[in-house]
């Protein structure tokens, strides 16, 4: 139990650290939202100055940070200059969309990676393994951006898929089921791009973890007891290979997140990605911090879940024995 | 638990002290283990261990696993600090020495481990392995080191043509020879052999045992031979000390101890050692 | 009465990545009768562990069985369909691997691992299986059975893990148990416990045992006959007493001499030089012609370099492969 409290505290500290750094970098970066405004001849300099005071840009950094934390604890994440609305509701919508994409992609990627990786491991060195390894190598080499754009081109050329967005224009008139199908249709390409970018590394890791276990004495011992092959593979081998794979799960959450930011921008999916990008470009301070913090929360939660899973899956960690 | 020290020399007499190369008095070692989850467990590895080893002789330390033998080996080799107690080596107190002074002492006490596979760097050549400690010592130049390395290899029976062979290409017995040669490179007075023969086949054990006896006669080495194989201990040792649960419960001349064991732990060990001469009282199978 | 197990002219080789063949076993033949304990004595590299897994066709991918037959209960195991082997493995012939800490799955409870063995061979309800599992564990853990059943392997000592392996081996009532170095990493007292368990179980269930070890002293008092393996070939086979006390093959003789008298020795023998077998076991990948022990043999003759000796029967029970005795 103490273990989890410690991990939780570490997560909280991480969040605090990230928020401080983001705040620092955002405000220290040259320029702020109001510089843009000042360039706009239609807005009087006095208005800009007044706005600056209103948003307390004239106060020292720690004070501004303190006020922001205080507000955060009350559920207020600041105000977006660009969207002219409180940050919190803005973030939730976008975050939800990103989660939708990432979770779906992750489920599909793992559902594919496990059997592919196991198949690869059991046919080590032979044709199926070589084919899979070759394909993953190619996918690994292609940068995520190119993958996303490639998928987009597929959409444009074939006309089978929407070229962006989350919902069709005629959304209002549809039944709930039709809305769901519409959503799924829009999700197909972004999910495809994400899965393609995450899959190769997952498959390789599963393959490596399972291959190592296949050689283990306890597997041969179990075989000598006459335990049938499928049971051997899925109950004995996979469970022993679980540890590195669960850690990988935690890690893949992070990488999927960063991948999703990119895919969202390319495919105009209204998630955190485009929001963050615009906010950074527009120096929309609170949105930037809010977005980064949101991503960090996802990351920390993912890793924390992985910790819980390992604790549950490996009795050696539970009793404090050194893991082999 | 009372223990009985019936060593052949009464080491309470000052003059005789120099005859005992190593004297250990009431050594204790406590560990605190912190688990991954943060809970602390205290382990009492050694409790009041006392014994001594005569110069140029062999003491076999026997006991079951968990009796604290390896912890004791590490403390004597100055790789661990005891929690309390004295270690007198060659007339000098070494248990409480500072790091700098310990560095002078360590070359004189060398350790040979059980696992010939893991105690040697597999990618080093035989010559490199035996001359590596000399590099750390920093006294000789490269040629002198190699010459000394070759001499050591010859002494332990590794043929010269194999000197550049990598460690992982040698057999288990040969690797133990390398480990012994490496230990000898610093010209120690005391060699601590921690289950050094246990992982080897019997015919190979015989070879290494002979080698150890030769080296002892030629170089005047003193051995602390730690093992749970009472048979080999009986063959190699002048004196035997029996350990149980972190204590030395009995010590004496090998002959006497084996013929007339005083303590239950000793009797148990003797009874548990398999003998070639045992007969099977089962009726014959048709 | 026909022997329980007949191994005839077994040849097994390992194939390196480069395609080179390294013989591991050649021409190995022996019988095991019902209720008999056969000791297989040999040192590292002699092929004893290969023999254990070859009997059940559990060799790793880079090994191949080149020749021979393994007759068990009317079947040739080497030529049977893989499907036909599953009811035999663990149920008729059980294997106990070396290194108990590695032979158990690290994250599955003992009770489940034992139950899995039962489930693989005996269709029964879960409740019945649990009953049987506890019964089987109670054979090796008369006290604390339930506690052990709920534990994980890493919570048990080496001796306890070994007992679990024995329990798993007897769970389905096999007629033959092949134990590969069952006491190698254990304390002397624990060793005695384990050997005692073997004795008790074989009386109770009339088991045949093949006990593989490199320690000749273990076989005294436990094995009926001993087979000595050297460099993949049978050097000698005969009643335990004869093999240990009056071995005929030069290798066996030299091996027995290199075990220190230790507890049975006199003060004179202490710290004396042990007679050793000069040199090392041959590298099987680069074999030369002739007897494999020739280069280390004190009794070698001219013909030993040219041909390999065949098995010569010295008596009804005792056979040696050495030119000293003919062939």
In terms of structural class, how would the helical and strand content of chain A be classed? Answer: mainly alpha
DSSP strand count of chain B = 11
**Overall morphology of chain A:** globular
Measured as a percent range, the helix fraction of chain A is over 70%
Q: Name the poorly predicted regions of chain B.
A: 1-16, 280-286
Shape of chain B: globular
What is the percentage of strand-forming residues of chain B?
25-35%
Helical content class of chain B: 25-40%
Q: Can you summarize this structure?
A:
Chain A is an all-alpha fold. Chain A has helices spanning 2-28, 33-39, 45-54, 61-73, 87-122, 127-141, 144-158, 176-214, 217-224, 229-240, 242-267, 272-282, 285-313, 315-318; strands at 79-80, 85-86.
Could you explain the architecture of this structure?
The complex is a heterotrimer of chains A (324), B (286) and C (327). With 324 residues, chain A is mainly α. Helix content of chain A is 78%, strand content 1%. Chain A has helices at residues 2-28, 33-39, 45-54, 61-73, 87-122, 127-141, 144-158, 176-214, 217-224, 229-240, 242-267, 272-282, 285-313, 315-318; strands at residues 79-80, 85-86. Chain A has a two-stranded antiparallel ribbon. The mean pLDDT of chain A is 82. By secondary structure, chain B is α/β, with parallel strands linked by helices. Chain B has a 7-stranded mixed beta sheet with strand order 1-11-10-4-9-8-7, with helices on both faces. In chain B, strands 3-2-5-6 form a 4-stranded antiparallel beta sheet, with helices on one face. The longest helix of chain B is centred in the C-terminal third of the chain and has 18 residues, at 202-219. Chain C has 11 helices and 12 strands. Chain C has helices at residues 48-55, 82-85, 100-103, 110-121, 126-140, 145-149, 158-170, 188-205, 216-219, 240-245, 250-258; strands spanning 5-15, 21-32, 37-41, 63-72, 75-76, 93-96, 176-180, 208-213, 225-230, 233-239, 312-313, 319-320. In chain C, the strands form 2 sheets. An 8-stranded mixed beta sheet of chain C has the order 6-7-8-3-9-10-12-11, sandwiched between helices. In chain C, strands 2-1-4-5 form a 4-stranded antiparallel beta sheet, covered by helices on one side. Chain C is globular. The model of chain C has no long low-confidence stretch (mean pLDDT 89). Chains in contact: A-B, A-C, B-C. At the B-C interface, helix 6, helix 7, helix 8, helix 9 and helix 10 of B face helix 8, helix 9, helix 10 and helix 11 of C.
């Amino acid at each position: 139990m103490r273990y989890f409290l410690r991990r939780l505290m570490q997560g909280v500290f991480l969040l605090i650290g990230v928020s401080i750094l983001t705040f620092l970098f955002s405000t220290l970066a040259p320029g702020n939202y109001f510089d843009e405004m000042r360039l706009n001849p239609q807005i009087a300099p006095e208005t800009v100055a007044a706005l600056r005071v209103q948003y307390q840009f004239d106060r020292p950094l720690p004070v501004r940070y303190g006020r922001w934390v205080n507000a955060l604890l009350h559920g207020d994440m600041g105000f977006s200059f660009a969207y002219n609305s409180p940050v919190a509701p803005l973030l939730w919508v976008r975050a939800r969309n990103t989660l939708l994409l990432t979770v779906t992609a992750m489920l599909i990627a793992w559902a594919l990676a496990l059997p592919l990786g196991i198949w690869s491991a059991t046919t080590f060195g032979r044709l199926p393994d070589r084919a899979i390894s070759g394909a993953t190598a190619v996918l690994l080499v292609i940068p995520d951006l190119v993958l996303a754009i490639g998928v987009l081109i597929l959409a444009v050329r074939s006309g089978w898929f929407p070229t962006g967005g989350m919902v069709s224009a005629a959304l209002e008139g549809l039944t709930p089921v039709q809305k769901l199908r519409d959503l799924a249709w829009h999700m197909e390409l972004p999910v495809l791009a994400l899965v393609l970018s995450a899959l190769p590394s997952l498959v390789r890791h599963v393959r490596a973890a399972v291959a190592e276990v296949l050689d283990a004495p306890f597997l041969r011992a179990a075989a000598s007891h006459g335990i049938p092959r499928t049971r051997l593979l899925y109950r004995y081998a996979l469970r022993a290979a679980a540890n590195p794979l669960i850690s990988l799960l935690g890690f893949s959450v992070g990488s999927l997140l960063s991948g999703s930011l990119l895919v969202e921008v390319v495919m105009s999916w209204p998630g955190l990605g485009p929001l963050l990008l615009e906010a950074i470009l527009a120096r929309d301070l609170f949105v930037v911090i809010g977005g980064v913090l949101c991503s960090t929360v996802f990351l920390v939660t993912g890793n924390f879940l992985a910790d819980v899973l390992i604790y549950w899956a490996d009795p050696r960690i539970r009793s404090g024995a050194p893991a082999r | 638990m009372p223990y009985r020290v019936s060593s052949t020399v009464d080491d309470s007499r000052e003059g005789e002290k120099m005859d005992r190369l190593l004297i250990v008095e009431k050594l204790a070692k406590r560990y605190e283990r912190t688990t991954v989850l943060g809970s602390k467990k205290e382990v009492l590895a050694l409790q009041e261990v006392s014994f001594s080893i005569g110069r140029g002789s062999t003491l076999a330390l026997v006991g079951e696993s968990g009796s604290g033998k390896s912890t004791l080996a590490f403390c004597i080799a100055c790789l661990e600090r005891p929690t309390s107690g004295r270690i007198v080596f060659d007339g000098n107190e070494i248990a409480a020495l500072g790091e700098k002074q310990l560095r002078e002492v360590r070359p004189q006490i060398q350790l040979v481990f059980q696992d010939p596979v893991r105690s040697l760097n597999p990618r080093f050549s035989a010559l490199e392995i035996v001359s590596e400690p000399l590099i750390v010592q920093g006294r000789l130049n490269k040629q002198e080191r190699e010459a000394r390395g070759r001499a050591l290899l010859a002494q332990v029976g590794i043929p010269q043509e194999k000197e550049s062979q990598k460690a992982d290409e040698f057999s288990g017995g040969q690797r133990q020879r390398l480990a012994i040669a490496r230990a000898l490179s610093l010209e120690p007075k005391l060699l601590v052999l921690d289950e050094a023969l246990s992982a080897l086949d019997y015919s190979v054990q015989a070879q290494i045992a002979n080698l150890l006896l030769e080296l002892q006669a030629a170089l005047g080495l003193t051995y602390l031979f730690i093992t749970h194989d009472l048979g080999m201990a009986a063959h190699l040792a002048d004196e035997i000390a029996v350990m149980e649960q972190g204590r030395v419960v009995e010590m004496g001349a090998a002959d006497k101890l084996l013929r007339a064991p005083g303590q239950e732990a000793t009797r148990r060990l003797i009874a548990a050692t398999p003998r070639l001469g045992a007969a099977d009282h089962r009726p014959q199978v048709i | 009465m026909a022997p329980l197990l007949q191994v005839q002219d077994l040849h097994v080789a390992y194939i390196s990545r480069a395609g080179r063949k390294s013989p591991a076993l050649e021409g190995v033949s022996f019988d095991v009768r019902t209720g008999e304990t056969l000791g297989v004595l040999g040192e590292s590299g002699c092929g004893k562990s290969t023999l254990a897994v070859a009997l059940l066709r559990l060799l790793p991918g880079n090994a191949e069985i080149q020749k021979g037959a393994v007759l068990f209960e009317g079947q040739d195991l080497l030529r049977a369909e893989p499907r036909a082997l599953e009811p035999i493995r663990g149920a008729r012939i059980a294997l106990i691997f070396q290194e108990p800490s590695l032979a158990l799955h690290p994250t599955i409870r003992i009770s489940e691992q034992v139950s899995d063995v039962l489930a693989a061979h005996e269709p029964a309800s879960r409740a019945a299986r649990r009953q049987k599992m506890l019964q089987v564990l109670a054979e090796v853990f008369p006290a604390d059975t339930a506690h052990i059943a709920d534990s994980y392997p890493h919570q048990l000592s080496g001796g306890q893990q070994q007992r679990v392996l024995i329990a798993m081996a007897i769970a389905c009532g096999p007629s033959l148990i092949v134990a590969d170095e069952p006491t190698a990493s254990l304390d002397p007292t624990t060793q005695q416990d384990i050997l005692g368990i073997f004795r008790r179980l074989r009386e109770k269930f009339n088991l045949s045992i093949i006990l593989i070890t490199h320690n000749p002293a273990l076989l005294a008092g436990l094995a009926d006959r001993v087979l000595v393996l050297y460099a993949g070939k049978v050097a000698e086979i005969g009643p335990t007493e004869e093999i240990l006390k009056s071995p005929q093959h030069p290798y066996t003789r030299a091996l027995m001499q290199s075990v220190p008298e230790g507890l049975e020795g006199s003060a004179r023998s202490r710290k004396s030089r042990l007679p050793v077998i000069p040199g090392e076991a041959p590298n099987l990948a680069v074999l030369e012609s002739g007897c494999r022990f020739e280069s280390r043999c004190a009794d070698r003759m001219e013909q030993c370099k040219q041909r390999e000796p065949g098995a010569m029967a010295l008596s009804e029970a005792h056979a040696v492969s050495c030119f000293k005795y003919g062939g």
